[in-house]
Amino acid sequence: MCGIVGYVGSRAAMPILMAGLGQLEYRGYDSAGVALQRKGAIDVIKACGRLSALQAALPKRSSATTGIGHTRWATHGEPNERNAHPHTDAAGKLALVHNGIVENAAELRRHLEGKGVTFRSETDSEVLAALISGEFERDGDLLAATQRALVRVVGTYGIALMHEDLPGEIVAARNGSPVIVGVGDHEMFLASDAAALAPYTRQVVYLEDGEVVRLKARSYEVQDFHAIVAERAPATIDIEATLASSGEHAHFTLKEMHEQPQTLARLMSGRLDERFSTAHFGGLNLSAKELMGFKRIKLLGCGSALISADIGARTIERLARIPADAESAAEFRYRNPIIDPDTLYFAVSQSGETYDTLAAVQEVQRKGGTVLGVVNVVGSSIARQCGAGIYLHAGPEVAVVSTKTFASTLAAFTLFALYLGRMRDLSPAEGARVIAALQALPEHVQRLVDRADEFEAVAKRYAGYDRAYFVGRGEGFGLAREGALKLKEISYIHAEAYPASELKHGPLALIDPQTPTFAIVPKDDLVAKNASTIAEIRTRKGPVVAICHEGALDETVEDRIEVPALHPAVDPILLLIPLQFIAYHAALARGCDVDKPRNLAKSVTVE
Ligand code: F6R
């Protein structure tokens, strides 16, 4: 959700900013801009649309050695050049980029207008620029002006700014949206994602909420909003710097789907214990005794992370026989939840930056609860806030829709369920069966990935429809939700997921020859029930695509994708793969931008 970059040093800033924005474009792609500071002047260049439009608008060369840049996901004000960042104050001397939402922007705007300020954009960000500029006039200190202004601001933000009177200086601040300083050799970098810093330095300082930093080529100075100095030594990050290319694959989405056999193997690496038929985690920071003390498990997340949490909760209940459920982190945080000390909470987030999930973590902690993260991005806000949990180690996920991290999250919960189950009453024999299935999983996922042509053919047959149902029972309903979400996100086909058991309580009214249904049918106790649902749909002339276990379904269907069954605790991962490929190929067939679907962004750092 908006990407911020900054550079101050002796190199040309423009290419560094553009490379950083290239890495961050997944965070927003409505418009982009840079502010470049030559000695004594700030040039602001912006363009509506993708980064390539900004690239075309830039001068061939710029001697600027200080600059900030931004790639936008619109919140206040439609995506156009006027609303693009950086925003400046009225004199054009202060330039600012902002990620987040200022909740009292209207009130601040009215106040500033009363003092004679005129605004050119509809953004809350321009209000911030004007507010800080007003404070700057008092003493010419950009850090102090930012501190004084921000105590009046309500909302979430990561900001970076610079002023014409202060060449070679950038000030940045954080409240809820990530800001990371990269410490170089006589140069400093700034980004909202550590991956954008990786090509230049591994030494980083994560700003905490309520902190401001002043960057100069040779120094960084961190303070809170009340000028209390925070001594912050850089941490060393270990991160891949490979965001920029999808390699041999046409899209990042496809690349990431193809990576799944490896990312699943990486998730399990060193975590399976065949001797005791259990799993190990390095970072839970809870003793066996503490874990045994929990009476319930609650998983929190948003979007696909929530869906993976829901399937994960069922797997935990299945193997560990402890009550577990999942809830939208956004709903949870606002309902004044009762935090039970006997409940173990998990926050599930690929990016580790989803604001609602972070806020849910803070709500649990504030009320004395224990919360672990299941996160992909190392060092992200949620990972740091939880301080313990399970890293997915899936590598950077660049495509906006989550694919490989969804699969890895399911596997992470299977491992956790195995671990907890083996402490409770899961037998060694059953534990060994789960381990065997997990070990076989990457190879079976590879075989499914190799069947991509078959899934593409199915996708093409249904790409012309305007709507679709996805149905299933149990974990199958979770997969139906994920299949529907993927399809709607990237192909824009209206897709609705429903528990198969609920279809006849209403949605059956909409079944007709123009409404295909994707039915998830594992070979389990409910297979006969699913067969009946399919019969009811086909009686209403609705086409059915069954994604089912081999030999599970005798029913005639329009299309059938058969998937092997390994063990109920890992089978959802196998049933997932065809759903991902169907969404991807349907989107391609409809000419959609698969990696960057309209209106979306990878990291949702606003409420
Ligand atoms: C869907 C998707 C989103 C994310 C959601 C949470 O394909 O990617 O629904 O799952 O925005 O994101 P994270 O996992 O980063 O918290």
The proportion of residues forming helix, as a percent range, comes to: 25-40%
Assign the CATH superfamily of the largest domain.
Aminohydrolase, N-terminal nucleophile (Ntn) domain
Mean pLDDT: 93
Biggest sheet strand line-up:
3-2-4-1-10-9-11-15
CATH class term of the largest domain: Alpha Beta
N- to C-terminal distance: 11 Å
Q: What is the second-level CATH architecture of the largest domain?
A: 4-Layer Sandwich
Overall outline: globular
Q: Tags for this entry?
A:
eight-stranded antiparallel sheet, 3 domains, Rossmann fold, alpha/beta, 607 residues, single chain, binds fructose -6-phosphate, Glutamine Phosphoribosylpyrophosphate, subunit 1, domain 1
Task: Describe it.
The protein is of the alpha/beta class and 607 residues long. It folds into three domains: 3-236, 4-Layer Sandwich (Glutamine Phosphoribosylpyrophosphate, subunit 1, domain 1); 246-450, Glucose-6-phosphate isomerase like protein, domain 1 (Rossmann fold, 3-Layer(aba) Sandwich), CATH 3.40.50; 455-607, Glucose-6-phosphate isomerase like protein, domain 1 (Rossmann fold), CATH 3.40.50. Helices cover 36% and strands 23% of the residues. An eight-stranded antiparallel beta sheet has the order 3-2-4-1-10-9-11-15. The protein has a seven-stranded antiparallel beta sheet with strand order 5-6-7-8-12-13-14. Strands 19-18-20-21-22 form a five-stranded parallel beta sheet, with helices on both faces. Strand 20 (343-349), helix 11 (355-366) and strand 21 (370-375) form a beta-alpha-beta unit. Helix 3 crosses helix 4, helix 7 runs antiparallel to helix 14 and helix 14 (428-449) runs parallel beside helix 18 (571-589). The termini are close together. Fructose -6-phosphate (F6R) binds at residues 302-305, 349-351, 354, 357, 401-402, 485, 489, 603-604. Fructose -6-phosphate binds at residues 302-305, 349-351, 354, 357, 401-402, 485, 489, 603-604.
